[in-house]
Batch of 3 targets.
Target 1
Amino acid sequence: MQGEGGSVRVTASLGVVQYDGREALDELVTRADQALYRAKGEGRNRVASERREPPPQAIKRAVGD
């Protein structure tokens, strides 16, 4: 990326979570923040996602039981 003083190097770390439709916004943001800090801890230009087990009813729907 070119700036007025020359090149500027840009890096990005992201924390990604999935909204389950039931939780409060502050809980969602807290989980995303935790994933972000994990990504930052792993180095630059990283994406970290949350590792959560799906609820049992979601597994049943997925397999058709």
Note: The radius of gyration is 17 Å.
Target 2
Amino acid sequence: MPARCSIRRDHSPSLTGPPAPETVPNLLGWLRACHEGGSILAAVCAGTFLLAATRLLDGRPATTHWSAAARLQQTFPGPQDRS
């Protein structure tokens, strides 16, 4: 059965950056399941860190806020930084 991939309301936006990937394994699994089911995923700013944690950005262009670009590249070397 495909994952229900409508907008989720159980994770509040953050102005301090994304949650640590290890603290949201269910969210990462849900993102992977949505992708496998054919959903197109997108992220804005620090949300790129969560998509990178799913490994779905490996080898793909990715961008984030310029002040977080070096941290994205150090933490997740798979995405090709385009910040």
Note: The chain has a mean pLDDT of 81.
Target 3
Amino acid sequence: MEPHLTGKQYDKIASWWHDYHKTSSYGVKPFEHALSFVSAKREERQTAPLALDVGCGSSDRFISILERSGFLLTGIDVSEKMIKLAKDNHPSHHFCMMILALGNQTTSMIIFMLGIAYFIFR
């Protein structure tokens, strides 16, 4: 499915997704575990650490964890409505609708979640 069509599909379920996942514990433990690896690095910094959330959706549970850990966040997603929910609920962070591309080709798949956490924050 083309990324813009994927975004339109997520637009249809954005409110449900947000309400269902904002209090969900799914993925929280591994996410917090990944953050524990960067805590020493964060203490060395003079400024707030930055995080990039690719495919952020409305992101409530993960953004809240990052906020408590002192991170500033940029979130990108293909769903306009997911981005609006994220902006409405976390106005101190930056969110934008974006389709990632490599060169002149749209990416077909981005693999991230916890494997990329260390790479982003180190």
Note: The helical segments are 3-21, 28-36, 39-44, 60-68, 80-89, 114-121.
